[in-house]
Amino acid sequence: LAIFLGAWIFYQARRVQLSASFPNLAMLAVGLGLGLLTKAVFLAFVLPLLFFVWLIGRREALGNAHVITRLAFFLGVVSLLGCYKYVESLILFGSPTISNLDFGEWIKEHQPTWLGVYSLFDFNLFKLVRDPVISASTVHSYPLLIYGSFWYSLIPESTFQGNLISPINRIGSAIYILALYPTFLMLVGATRTGIAALGSDSSSAHDASSPECTRLDYEGVLLLIVFLNLLLIVAVGWKYDVWSVFQGRLLFPSYVALLLALATGMEWAESSRFKITAAHISMVALIALFIFYLVVEVWLANVFPVNPMRRWHVPFKIDMNAR
């Protein structure tokens, strides 16, 4: 649902850019409102989309009153549809962003994660390859937690059990290695888009409606959403100091933006036969591994069925003091 709503929002944002009519603005606001009702991570979308609506008005050289009317209409629809749970939580608990992290003793088993600046920059991929499921060697690394849970079932919280069985979980080890280059291409694509978007005002000031400028406006805002999405995950995880917050699935609302970053990275890779060949090989191998992973997991689920109502969230304890 988060992927679907995120894709819908990005699609509607493009429609608003092509035609900033009130019906299109309303559909964009409805998508964001539903997203806010679905997951709080959609809060990362609010400011970038408000900026996007303002930027479109600026590109169209509209008067301040017209731009403010658009912003007020957009924000009003979003608030009317998406603020219910936040207002309810504020009234009942005194905080609009209350969650299960504020209750229960279970979070103590996931603390502490923070080890200082080391936790922000530790990306020793060998730790994931050696232990493809969450372990004492990875719970203190923000990058490894997000990377591992984005590409594979790092956290054994579903009825798929293959990640707990050796050597089947070595599928995860192979995925971590092969996903390194596509992840690098995403970072390259995001960096290139960000630099181009920041320079678009000066380079395209003579024609703000040019296709290149329009594309950079759109992709730049999508990139900003991914950045704030990631920043929100890190901020909440740091606040509660709980390793289970750092999950790649919380980036799913920004999935389309990540695909655009990958596409831009692939464009960069096309400048060299070696780089583009490596990209093709890694992607094809990843797809093959994902198919193999699903086939194995479905087979295991049928042969050894698991009752999800009688299963622990994580079926083992991690020594959080181990290093």
Key phrases:
mainly alpha, 14 helices
Topology, pairings included?
Elements: H1 2-18, H2 22-38, H3 43-59, H4 64-82, H5 84-93, H6 118-121, H7 125-130, H8 142-151, H9 170-178, H10 180-198, H11 200-203, H12 211-240, H13 255-269, H14 273-303
Helix pairs in contact: 1-2, 2-4, 3-4, 3-12, 9-14, 10-12, 10-13, 12-13
Q: What class do helices, strands and sheet pairing give?
A: mainly alpha
Please give the alpha-carbon distance between the first and last residues: 37 Å
Write down the overall geometry.
globular
Mean pLDDT: 89
Low-confidence stretches: none
Assembly form of the protein: single chain
Rg for CA atoms? 22 Å
Q: With helices defined by DSSP (H or I, 4 residues minimum), what is the helix count?
A: 14
Total beta-strand segments = 0
Beta-strand proportion: under 5%
Give a nutshell description of this structure.
The chain is mostly helical.
Protein architecture, described:
The protein is mostly helical and 323 residues long. Helix content is 64%, strand content 0%. It contains 14 helices and no strands. The chain has helices spanning 2-18, 22-38, 43-59, 64-82, 84-93, 118-121, 125-130, 142-151, 170-178, 180-198, 200-203, 211-240, 255-269, 273-303. Helix 3 packs antiparallel against helix 12 and helix 10 (180-198) packs across helix 12 (211-240). It is globular and about 65 Å long. The two termini are 37 Å apart.
